[in-house]
Design brief:
The chain is α/β, with parallel strands linked by helices. It is built from 15 helices and seven strands. It has one domain: 3-Layer(aba) Sandwich (Glycerol-3-phosphate (1)-acyltransferase).
Length: 381
């Protein structure tokens, strides 16, 4: 494990030291108190004092990241986020999986942390099935506080900024080795996005590079790609949000990226932009949220292309389409094909919400909601 100490979740002494630091961070204690207060709709000094005391007590009782995920993240934080910013959280398909079998969940990616966190919550509520270690970019580890918070939650970090091709190759192989070790030796499940970064446009297509990376550690032992697929137990996952709290910022980023690449051939994201979107995604209204867990890939996948196609097919077909998706499709296409799907929706209010945006940004926002409908229609052609 020493080979993976810097990329894997905190364990043992690392975990204990991180918990000791976290309970001293005013940011965590203050945010926890704020969530407790808003959840109970009461703000007073008595509740604030006991919220801080409760947090420190509970954090002192956990000894590993699985316990932290269950008793702190799922029981407290996610439950409160659910009650304050989600209308209905539903999930399906988990009961079709083996109770004690570790899986690699390859998911579409819409929210920086909630996609993986809500899958953990769904697993937690389904007979305590194995929780996930989640793969994130090290761009989110902006300081010791955020690093500790992610690592005690089972985060595997990917180094995004590497100076040479050789360094990138070596780091990719090391990540692949760790993920195989996590599945086969530690017996834990993994969550990884289907491509690098969130989908900014609502198009959920899997990058072949993800499967190629996962396969590296198996290939060096002479294991065929088809056998790797069966051994890794890859499960496609679709998560859909009725409202995306970051729909506008994602669209604005697309515009800035297109303009920057046209002039400078490079786009540099603003510092802390991801952290700001992380907080926005946690706090703002998401409406209904659904997670659909697909079927593990089994026999018949001899190459990356065929496996990627099946992952995409399941993600597109299992995506729960909301009234916002159907309306955006009709709005952009000037049709009424799906009118009955949003009959109860206040379409005027939805359009009015974006009236302040520049036309090109507004169009991208609506495309982000409409594209999952297009993906579904393409699958059933």
């Amino acid at each position: 494990m020493d080979d993976f100490k810097d990329i894997g979740p905190y364990e043992g002494e690392q975990f204990s030291q991180a918990i000791s630091r976290l309970v001293q961070y005013p940011q965590l204690v203050d945010n926890f108190t704020d969530i407790i207060s808003r959840h109970n709709r009461v703000v007073n000094k008595w509740k604030s004092f006991h919220a801080k005391k409760l947090l420190r007590h509970m954090m002192g009782q956990v000894s590993n990241y699985t316990e932290f995920q269950e008793y702190i993240t799922c029981d407290i934080f996610l439950s409160m986020i659910e009650s304050s910013s989600i209308e209905n959280f539903t999930f399906d398909g988990i009961d079709q999986l083996g109770l004690d079998t570790p899986h690699i969940y390859i998911s579409n990616h819409r929210d920086i942390v909630l996609d993986a966190a809500l899958l953990d919550l769904a697993l937690y509520r389904s007979d305590n099935r194995k929780k996930c270690e989640m793969v994130i970019g090290d761009n989110l580890l902006v300081n010791q506080f955020t690093t500790d918070l992610f690592k005690v939650n089972g985060a595997i970090t990917v180094r995004r900024s590497l100076s040479s091709t050789a360094e990138l190759r070596d780091e990719t192989l090391r990540l692949s080795r760790y993920m195989r070790h996590a599945i086969e030796k530690k017996g834990v499940s993994l969550w990884i996005a289907q491509k690098s970064g969130r989908s900014k446009d609502g198009i959920d297509n899997t990058s072949p590079a993800i499967l190629k990376m996962l396969y590296l550690a198996y290939r060096e032992d002479g294991i065929s790609f088809a056998d790797f697929i069966k051994r890794a137990s890859i499960v496609p996952v679709s998560i859909s949000y009725q409202y995306d709290p970051c729909d506008v910022t994602k669209s604005e980023e697309q515009i800035r990226k297109l303009k920057a690449e046209g002039v400078y051939n490079v786009y540099v994201k603003k510092k802390y932009a991801d952290v700001i979107d992380l907080v926005r995604g946690l706090r703002l209204n998401k409406g209904n949220v659904h997670i659909q867990v697909g079927s593990p890939l089994g026999d018949g996948f001899e190459d990356v292309k065929s496996a990627v196609r099946e992952i995409d097919r399941q993600i597109h077909m299992n995506y729960r389409l909301w009234d916002t998706n159907y309306f955006a499709y009709d709005y952009l296409n000037k049709t009424k094909v799906f009118q009955e799907k949003y009959a109860d929706m206040s379409t005027k209010s939805f359009v009015k919400h974006y009236k302040h945006l520049k036309p090109e940004v507004k169009k991208l926002v609506f495309q982000g909601y409409a594209n999952p409908v297009i993906s579904m229609l393409n699958e059933i052609k």
